[in-house]
Amino acid sequence: MIKSPLNYTGGKSKLLPQILPLFPSKINKFIDLFAGGCNVGINVEAKQLFFNDNLHPLVDMYHIFATKDIDFILQYIENRIQSFELSKTNVIGYNELRTAYNLDKNPLDLFVLIAHSFNHQIRFNNKHEFNISLGKNRSSYNDRMKKNLIAFVEKLKERNAIFTAKDFNDFELDGLGKDDFVYCDPPYLITTGSYNDGKRGFKGWTEKEEKELLLLLEQLHKKNINFALSNVLEHKGQTNQLLIDWLQNNPYLTPHPLSISYKNSNYQTTKEGSLEVLITNYTPAVLL
Ligand SMILES: C[S@@+](CC[C@H](N)C(=O)[O-])C[C@H]1O[C@@H](n2cnc3c(N)ncnc32)[C@H](O)[C@@H]1O
Question: Does 42 sit in the ligand 1 pocket, CB within 6 Å?
Fold first, then answer.
């Protein structure tokens, strides 16, 4: 399994062993419509991989990963760490690199910043300036991250991956046919991620977007295109009624409950927990 070099909020790497077997066995084009850390698409066997995310600075970074030589990328990262004397404790060096990135937006500088940022988070202000602080005494570019980066970059090149930075509504899905597959892992309406509150210069995620996405998925179903949607039906005492109603109104949908490993215990739902599901409009081969 390849792990994204970014520790992405809402990343699905831990759930992959449960999610991947539920995907169709033969996939021509795989569309990861809300790619985030690309944890899902990068591990899918498909003829062609498409990754989309509306966080365009992230997509600019992936473009470089997909097109530049790995030695060039690694050397650039090492050089930046040396010139700014980056470490787990050098706040001044980190802030200087952040200022440099916010001036010229070099996509590889964003990766170096994420490697050192608090909890490896990615967040921008309304002027699209990266604004996370140093993860003091905790975050740095380490060997594990380097190993993940190398494997990730190699796989992107091997698969000829294509990246776009569109709103999901603007992604061209018209040309899709049989054996193409759309995977959606949008922000969850009833949880908060630093990318979905709409206060940071990027569009947020509200009932409006949720309804638009569900409509888009209904249209895909009418065209016989297979899709899967990740989401939570319950989270910390809240329920996503919109999604529950949608499931009830569209009998061709199946929610597959996923178990989440939380503090050494496996559960599907508890009072404090989440009911995480993968919703499909087809019956997965493993269940036939
Ligand atoms: C839950 S994360 C995806 C995580 C990913 N599946 C992984 O495993 O790494 C959701 C992503 O949706 C993106 N997003 C939010 N609103 C969007 C929109 N309107 N169109 C496209 N992408 C959007 C966010 O930037 C975020 O990266």
Answer: no
* CB of 167 closer than 6 angstroms to any ligand 1 atom: yes
Residues 6+ apart with CB under 8 A from 174: none
185 lines ligand 1 (CB under 6 A): yes
For the Cβ of 65 lying below 6 angstroms from any atom of ligand 1, the answer is no
Residue 224: CB atoms within 10 A of its CB come to 11
Query: For residue 275, which amino acid is it?
Result: L
61-152: CATH number = 1.10.1020.10
Nearest CA to ligand 1 atom 3: 36
Each residue of 264-277: b (16+ CB within 10 Å) or e?
eeeeebeeebbbbb
3-state SS, residue 226: strand
CATH 3.40.50.150 residue ranges of the chain are: 13-54+166-287
Confidence band, pLDDT 50/70/90 cuts, at residue 268:
very low
Q: What is the pLDDT of residues 34-60, one digit of tens each?
A: 999 999 999 999 999 999 999 999 999
- Best residue for ligand 1 mutational test, from 18, 53, 170, 184 (most atoms within 8 Å of Cβ): 53
Q: Which residues pair with 234 in a beta bridge?
A: 239, 275
Q: Is the CB of 123 under 6 A from ligand 1?
A: no
Radius of gyration of the chain (CA): 19
- Look up the CATH number of domain 13-54+166-287: 3.40.50.150
pLDDT at 271: 45
179: alpha, beta or left, given left = phi > 0 and alpha = psi -120 to 50? left
How high is the pLDDT of residue 269?
Answer: 45
Bridge-partner residues for 229, per DSSP? 184, 279
